[in-house]
Amino acid sequence: MHADPKGVLTGVHFLDGDHACCEGTLAAGARFAAGYPITPSTEVVERFASRIPTVGGIFIQMEDELAASIAIQGAVWGGAKAFTVTSGPGFSLMMEHIGYAAITETPCVFVNVQRGGPSTGLPTLPAQADMMQARWGSHGDYGIIALCPNSPQECFDLTITGFNLAEEFRVPVMMMLDECVGHMTEKVIIPPADQIEVSPRRYTHKPPAEYHPFEPGEDLVPEMVKAGDGYRFHVTGLTHDERGYPSMDVATQDRLVRRLLDKLKPFSNGRAICDTADLEDAEVAVVSYGITSRVAQRAIELARTRGIRAGKFRLISAWPFPEQHIAALAGRVKAFVVPELNLGQMVHEVERAAAGRAKVIPVSHAGGTVHDPEVILKAIVEAAK
Amino acid sequence: MSKGFVAINVERCKGCAFCVEFCPTHVLALSSAFNSKGYHPPHVVASDKCSGCDLCGMYCPDFAIYGARYAR
Amino acid sequence: MSEQLLEVECEIPEGSFNPVEPFLRMDRIPHIWCAGCGIGTTVNCFTRALLESKANLDKVAIVSGIGCTGRVAGYARLDSFHTTHGRAIPFATGLKLANPELQVVVYSGDGDLFAIGGNHFIHAARRNMDIKVICVNNLTYAMTGGQTAPTTPSHVISATAPYGVFEPAFNLVQLADACGASYVARWTTFHVKQLARSMEEVLKKKGFGFIEIVSPCPTLYQRRNKMGDGLDTMKYYKQASKIRHGAPTGECSLTKSGEIVVGKFIDRERPDYYELLQAQMHESLGDRYAEPEVGCSEC
Questions:
Q1: What one-character DSSP code corresponds to residue A293?
Q2: Considering CB atoms only, which of A70, A78, A96 is closest to C99?
Q3: C23-288: what fold?
Q4: How many Å lie between the alpha carbon of A320 and the closest alpha carbon of chain C?
Q5: pLDDT tens figures, A29-76
Q6: Which residues of chain A make contact with C91, given a CB cutoff of 8 A?
Q7: How far is A277 from chain C (nearest CA, A)?
Q8: Which end of chain A has fewer CB atoms surrounding its CB within 10 Å, N or C?
Q9: In terms of CA atoms, which chain C residue is nearest residue B50?
């Protein structure tokens, strides 16, 4: 269905990534946000707090990130599309509720504008060091989707995609911005509402007597209900059966947890969102994401001018990791170069997918600024040897 | 005839005796018999005194007993 | 057991049923609570209050945290949410704001609401969020084995205070009062009639309502302290409780074996969060303000 025009600020704008992300939430239909201030992410909800009273919705500043990350889930079960926004230290606090969203299959969006860590780290400076945390940060086995925009325009576009994927798969979706992308100001085109597709919640049409809240459909995703509609359903963070009732037996645990991962398979196997260029003849593939992909672009261009056949593989959906794409490339390229603003995170996924069929060269950076393109170029040159 | 009655689900009982202790008209006593879980459930010892006030039902933490008035 | 031995001497009319049962998920009964635990007793009172209040049960949602009382949500045949440890209140906040027509009740224990969840309690009370918080206070962390809670009275032996608790405990009704709750009451599981009436009253009261229910925990609290069984504690409640409506909450601290002041302490009028939100937006934005329609309409 199309976006509700009330939330769509159609036009050509000059916005930073945080503000563009906010416009994306509104266009996607989010009418509830809960947040707790933290640099460099706060601008997303500052704008939401300013915009939402005229659109028709609620922003509430909660007492901490634990509260914000569970208040949005209460709102979702009350019928809202909802999100929260944070950065590293707050993201750490939200981990418990990312797990809760995963096991209760609550569609919601967590925006993380990454800064340097660990701990308080570099509050105002960029990093991409929460990538593994986004995937694995909460305890137990579960799956999530993580998207990595590299421009304000993508902050808008991909936020809508993120909300849509959350509804389709009933998973928490992580919008993995970084400080540079969040604070970079560029042109953002917001199309008319009727050109924006938004996914409706997958509400059941079954009557209460026939409905089981965690009975999966053919695509392994159960249909949803909301409070107040007479279904008298139960939701728990305990391992539960199809009725939603706690069940401490091994078979139920196996069935539930496998399904939480398996339902995302269609996404990892084929629908992964990637941006590629110059890979047809490439001997070196540069795998990057977020702000680093824009630095890598320069390095690829420099390499090409030197006659090195470098190509671009940009992760837009970083999780589930598009391992089939990387595996396919591994048979064709000599090497992967993986620059990222951390000391080695997604590079391990590339290594795993490449499975020894191509060299994998990390270009690590502890964060605080972006790479020097020359450093990436040097790695490309080495890789091509 | 009494004004009310109590109904007991003996298998649900855990023998806490709240109902016996707080019945205002002393209708109940703990049985010497056991239920299958090994608890002594209450039994009625003075049915004629039951007012059907359902205080036993309000006290019972195990939803194992309730009282009600007979329809007249 | 043989039914004959306990043949009920009352004539049970055809079609009669335990009035609590329509409020329970009977396919989940019997519950997990211990013999002599008071949580089930509070559930009886809650269901009587729902019945008396004539609430549309399809519009009542119950939210629990973690722990023994946290299991109430799973037994209540309502829209029910068993959330994470301490976070029932912020979940309830989001639920209520997304769908203000819901009656949202938080039903949880003292450890959950006042230790790990203490920050959320004080802020929800400060905001006067229109939710009702029922706290079953058994003075300990029961489900995990009887550790010291922020409510455990001095000198009590707990699993983590084997030589006796020495840190001061919270007085929950004073805390709720100080944070601005619209309604504050305390009862024990002995006071079933008063408790049911109080619950009915709080359901009808707009704003943040709080009821503390002092409740026995024979297995994890009393056993270590040689306090007898559930019934012994109920008798203690009967003997030691003093009903003092309107008592200054600062005078209502609980001790190991002293007087228990019960009653309704606070019943005041304050605009709730939603009213304050709307008033502020109307004042600042006038006609530009759009009333929240948080639920996605077409989906």
A1: H
A2: A78
A3: Rossmann fold (3.40.50)
A4: 26
A5: 999 999 999 999 999 999 999 999 999 999 999 999 999 999 999 999
A6: 70-71, 73-74
A7: 37
A8: C
A9: C10
